[in-house]
Design a protein that fits this description.
This protein is mainly alpha-helical and about 325 residues long. The protein has helices at about 5-20, 25-35, 40-55, 60-85, 95, 100-115, 125-150, 160-185, 190-215, 220, 225-230, 235-245, 245-260, 265-280, 280-300, 305-320; strands at about 85-90, 90. The chain has one domain (about 5-320): Farnesyl Diphosphate Synthase (Orthogonal Bundle), CATH 1.10.600. Helix content is about 75%, strand content about 0%.
Length: about 325
């Protein structure tokens, strides 16, 4: 097996070879732009790694890995439009660099391109990849709609929030790993277990993303710090703050998140972060990140692969808990 950095290098090289700007440039230029901006490449790396963990060749999983990354970036292009986000990976978002219509249409083309990448696989493998991809793509859309709905609700529960991030983020991590297992011809039992491992890891990953959105370094995080606060997102941090804050802090925080335009953004971010810390929400979020990571690692223990291969995934999962980007 290769190192994580080596898988990332192999995938990045493959992406740059495959993603070319063609005519009309106004459609394909934005696609090349977002795909080549960089990013963690978490999902495609997991696809390649999982293929080899189950005895396959990572090169055979490259098309599936690229499909996952193209779909992921498609969702980011449209999410950024919905969130009116100015930055993605430290650079202008597609709709800011071009315009809204370009962002919508280029995103649509990316979704179609993702499906096309499965055409290189035969029969049962193609069918399995298409099925998990379609299921996951729809769940991601459901998760995004929950996220939008929650912005205008003041009664979002922790269970609802966890379901939202499972659909919006975690299922795609699970699907990325399941695709690698499918390409490698893993057993049905192991294929499901590696999906569950990835899904649980994805929940931890999103909780960490929420934490970094408030407390990350903007130079390394690559997105606007405090963006979730500005957009009134009912993150785990917010829900735990509402649950544990004193009455005065709770009332002020609820009022701020009920009115998108009523408070200066800088003031809102500073106050919300202070409440997150005073209420213990920041520490509770760290504990939740650890809990879901440990649940993922418990599933990993039951998968039918060698201990040295499990250790590769264990190290990867634990590294996500302490990431800063």
């Amino acid at each position: 097996m290769l190192s994580i950095d080596s898988y990332r290098e192999v995938f990045t090289s493959y992406l740059h070879d495959k993603v070319q700007t063609k005519q009309p440039e106004s459609l394909y230029g934005p696609i090349a732009y977002i795909l080549k901006l960089g990013g963690k490449r978490l999902r495609p790396v997991l696809t390649l790694m999982t293929a080899e963990i189950f005895g396959g060749d990572h090169k055979e999983a490259l098309s599936a890995a690229l499909a996952v990354e193209v779909f992921h970036n498609f969702s980011l292009v449209h999410d950024d439009i919905m969130d009116d986000a100015p930055l993605r990976r430290g650079e202008e978002t597609v709709h800011e660099k071009w315009n809204l219509n370009t962002g919508i249409l280029s995103g649509d083309a990316m979704l179609i391109q993702a499906y096309q990448l499965f055409e290189s696989y035969e029969n049962d493998t193609f069918r399995g990849l298409a099925q998990i991809f379609s299921k996951t793509a729809l769940e991601v859309c459901e998760g995004q709609q929950y996220d939008v709905d929650f912005e205008v609700r003041n009664d979002v529960t922790e269970a609802e929030y966890l379901k939202m991030i499972e659909y919006k983020t975690a299922v795609l991590v699970g699907a990325a790993m399941k695709m690698g297992a499918l390409v490698a011809g893993a057993s049905e039992d192991d294929t499901q277990k590696i999906y569950d491992f990835g899904r649980l890891l994805g929940i931890a990953f999103q909780l960490q993303d929420d934490y970094l959105d408030a407390f990350g370094n903007p130079e390394t995080f690559g997105k606007q710090v405090g963006g979730d606060i500005i957009e009134n997102k009912k993150t785990f941090l917010y829900l735990k703050a509402i649950e544990n804050a004193n009455t005065d802090d709770k009332e002020k925080l609820v009022a701020m998140f009920a009115n998108k335009n009523g408070t200066d953004n800088t003031t809102k971010i500073v106050f919300a972060k202070a409440v997150f810390e005073r209420s213990g929400a920041s520490e509770l979020t760290k504990e939740a990140i650890k809990k879901y990571t440990e649940q993922a690692l418990k599933v990993l223990d039951s998968i039918s692969v060698s201990d040295d291969k499990k250790q590769v995934l264990r190290d990867f999962g634990e590294s996500l808990m302490y990431r800063t980007i």
